[in-house]
Design goal:
7 strands; three-stranded antiparallel sheet; 1 helix; about 110 residues
Length: about 110
């Protein structure tokens, strides 16, 4: 959605499916209901003045993943692991991109949804 009058954003089903798979891989609690919010801020790649994101009710929360801790100089075949907690996993709109070449800066909304 480019913010034109009367236009509404459309949710991409594949994005939701991938977010659910990611949440499951991170051992998150997947919520049956989530909601989207307008996050208002000024930035050069944000022509409409807001970004659609999940703030209050994200798609997944409270996960964790075990990761090995590599210690420099440690000689072992089994590395100790630690739990990395995941507070929230949310979906948000990719608004656009900025391209910088020398002193020039170009904003493109080609990646925006």
């Amino acid at each position: 959605c480019l913010g034109h009058p009367g236009m509404l954003p459309a949710l991409n089903k594949k994005v939701v499916d991938l977010a659910i798979k990611t949440g499951l891989a991170l051992n998150c609690e997947i919520h049956q209901q989530s909601k989207f919010d307008r996050k208002q801020y000024f930035y050069g790649d944000l022509p409409k003045g807001y970004q659609i994101s999940q703030n209050d009710r994200p798609i997944a929360t409270n996960g964790s993943v075990k990761v090995p801790m590599f210690v420099v100089g440690m000689q072992t075949e089994v590395f100790p692991a630690c739990d990395v907690r995941i507070h929230r996993l949310h979906i948000e709109e990719d608004t656009a991109k900025l391209t910088h070449e020398g002193a020039d800066s170009l904003a493109s909304s080609g990646g925006g949804g």
